Amino acid sequence: MVKEHLQEIRSREQRARDSIAEARIQAEKNVEDAKAEGERLLEETQIEGNELKRSMIAEAKKTAEAKIDLLRGDSEKIISTLEQTAGKKVEEVIDIIIEEFQKGI
Length: 105
Description:
Structural class: mainly alpha
Order of helices and strands: H
Number of helices: 1
Oligomer: single chain
Helix content: over 70%
Largest sheet: none
Number of strands: 0
Distance between the termini: 151 Å
Radius of gyration: 44 Å
Strand content: under 5%
């Protein structure tokens, strides 16, 4: 009876050791799976970040080009107005010079 009881205790101890070993193996597998999942998510996030960065840069370029075009249009209008004004002033100056020249003759 003592031998049977002792054998039962040893048997339970062995089952406990086996359970602990299986739990360790499962825990290691869980850690490896979690690590792989974390790496996958990190890579996904990096890809999404790069795509967002590219799209933001493209949008910024598009916005800058639109502003540049607008400024060029405004500059062309200003230059055109200045040219017209300068042309009128040149004509006025020529007329004044001709009048003064004719008075002097």
